[in-house]
Request: fold
Amino acid sequence: MTERKKPVGQPDKRRAIVTGALTLFARDGYTRAGLDAIAAEAGVSNRTIYNHFTDKAELFQTVIQESTRRVADTMVDIIDRHLSKVVDLEADLVDFGMAWLGVLTSDLAPHFALIRQINAEIEHIPPAALELWRDSGPGRTRRELAERLRRIAERGELAIDDPARAAGHLMLLISADNLTDRAALHDESALREMVAAGVHTFLHGYVRRPRHDAGEQ
Amino acid sequence: MTERKKPVGQPDKRRAIVTGALTLFARDGYTRAGLDAIAAEAGVSNRTIYNHFTDKAELFQTVIQESTRRVADTMVDIIDRHLSKVVDLEADLVDFGMAWLGVLTSDLAPHFALIRQINAEIEHIPPAALELWRDSGPGRTRRELAERLRRIAERGELAIDDPARAAGHLMLLISADNLTDRAALHDESALREMVAAGVHTFLHGYVRRPRHDAGEQ
DNA sequence: TAGACATTACATCGATCGGTGTAGCGAATG
DNA sequence: CATTCGCTACACCGATCGATGTAATGTCTA
Reply:
């Protein structure tokens, strides 16, 4: 299981195959994406794919791993860049959320279409591989975000019992409307309002409480 | 477009086809689910399917519509049953969340696998049909939940600017861990803790604020 | 230069699948 | 009883697809 497979073939061809496969897997899904189409997209012969990968399944797994790795790196980088030094918590969280959402529309966008494919075929994926992916992908970013939140809480700005759960809540709230209205992803102002609302809920919730500066009946 | 198609064939056969198709579409996805397998699952001949539906695509659309309708009805019912009369807001929201999550493990469970299939093939679905589904499915439940929250806010228990957005936040927070750990869906106590944490975040957020009963520096 | 290796185009195989045609069976209706 | 209609079983077609075989071309290196 820990065996390291020696790379065969030219590495640039291999990368072209993987990126082309990512494009088509993301757009058409595992079953629909034909190997001929992938080969054409990668500018590579059909036969070359089988020189680098034994199987369509192995190609798919490789695509997932490499794409997950890259996206997780990006996410962790965003977390570190925005939440290492916090001066205005709410404003910094909003900026962080905007950068976070920016990834969804970047050149890494196909990855998230691929994630939806994975979620769809989740019943057909061996649980071990699934767990491995979760741990190295969303799990890793969640742990990183949780650690940052824990430190902020340590300084007394947040009251967090379970940092991992809080991180999950924050990630959900930041991209809340993304799940219901994907068109809003390209409207900058609406996007900022969504993030601001999510961050506000994350910090303050919705319960009405008496103001501190003014008396209330 | 508004034409009403007269039903052909025996209605019980038709229902068997639709429910069988739901099972296989949910498990295997649109492409993988073969018509022979669907026919076998429904206890029906292959040819009978084409007596009731012109196309595989039309069968799929029918399955989506009927399943969406049933689930939305259930959801709306849960909302009305738990949030019409609220005495203890936080406790009632937790109970509501538990009932909400209960649907995910009920006999309606295949529906949500079908939703994942839709999300995966979202690029290949005509936008009009997609909008129609969103409006009659999640959109409808969200509007219903938003209306309940608006009334609660009117009574002064919640401070809500945008009820629709608040409803979205609540739905996300209730089933937060569902997205990362589906195994927890069958542990009653862990499930209740997840819902309680989500509701607590929805109401109070995470920001640390001075207590009302005790002085703080 | 010679040999090893990667890539390519092309042909092919077996399997699956969506969809259709056909003939026969059974039940309900008149 | 005769007709109609829906269901079934079966065979079949055309297309797609994953995967392999093969022979030729190109490229890098010893």
Chain B is about 70% helix and 0% strand. Chain B has two domains: 1-54, 63-204. Residues 63-204 of chain B form a domain with the Tetracycline Repressor; domain 2 fold (CATH 1.10.357.10). The mean pLDDT of chain B is 92.
